[in-house]
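ligand=3-phosphoglyceric acid
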Amino acid sequence: MTAGPVIPVLVIDDAATARPLAEALVRGGIRTLEVTLRTPAALDAIREMKKVDGAIVGAGTVVNPGQFQDAVDAGAEFIVSPGLTEKLAAPILESGVPFLPGIANAGDIMRGLDLGLTHFKFFPAEASGGLKALKALAAPFYQARFCPTGGITLASAPEWLAFDPVLCVGGSWLATGTMAEVEAKARAAAELKR
Ligand code: 3PG
């Protein structure tokens, strides 16, 4: 979460596109790459992206322990999930692999704190009430830090990043277009100030 201001959320349909995509993002200055386990190509995509110098490759949309194991076997260095269940959290915490689970309300955050977690993905960020909702939610939880994801754009990111408990934002907007366009979008994202 502190390696850069934006974590791109990547949905890869063809593993052959993974390495050039990761190279374009890293060239632009975005190193932390979340590959969502939403496509059959995702695990191969993680393996391909791991070949790129400087890339920190993790798995997203991890919703059960089996997917966690598959992701780690493919080389994932961190795990992101849309929500938080103890069934998923237990093996991840046991392994020591960095884990960013999704939260959307106070009960979710309290469950995370009970498990020893303090860093959360606020998801789906805009649909859950946006920055106003996160500010209200963060107030009682001074120790919590967030990566809002869902509906965030290059234009809206600065407002989120200006809120102290937000360490980074996530989004899929960087990963569209030609590789030259991806690189340019990564460069603009990497220049965002926290
Ligand atoms: C997702 O689940 O796809 C992420 O939250 C990304 O959302 P976005 O496409 O709105 O950036």
